[in-house]
Amino acid sequence: MYSIQQENELIHMAQHGNKTACEQLLQAYTGLLHKMAHRYQHTPSGRELSEDAPGILALAFMESVHAFDSSRGVHFAAFLQSRLQGALYKALRKTCTCNLHTAHPVASGTDAPWYNLVESPAPTPERIITARDELSRLSRQLSTADKQLLSLLYYHELPQNTIARLLHLSPQTVSKRKQKLLAQLSQKCV
What we know:
71% helix; elongated; single chain; Rna Polymerase Sigma Factor, Chain: A; Butyryl-CoA Dehydrogenase, subunit A, domain 3
């Protein structure tokens, strides 16, 4: 291992493009890089990241060498460990986020691809007719005031404050009526 002064000189030379100094620093911290590469191996996302971890850490190492400022009084090892941890954690979070937004369908017994088994949300003629019949049935059960409120909210798309002024009600009353009406409709649809 190098003394703090020797290490700072190597870092200074590496920051000015000396490849030998970079290689010496990398050789000195190989153990830390190897240890950090296995940091999240116990998690599923960490296992996915295991192939990329050495490259991520090597890049973070080079960025740390170029970003280090010895005049701040911080030892390079502490600075490096913090930067390596940050880079690895950022990559892990990105992997976790990607996994949350990726569909992992359960294998079915059919030979058809899973995406052919998922029903399309696009309106079909049958769905349109069924929805119109259901809407007609529900609207007959509503009072005139409820129909007027639904029309202003969803057909005319007016804000609740505007509806309150038009109907001479408080905005809270409009909000409560809307909630009550939607709850009533959802119970009737079930």
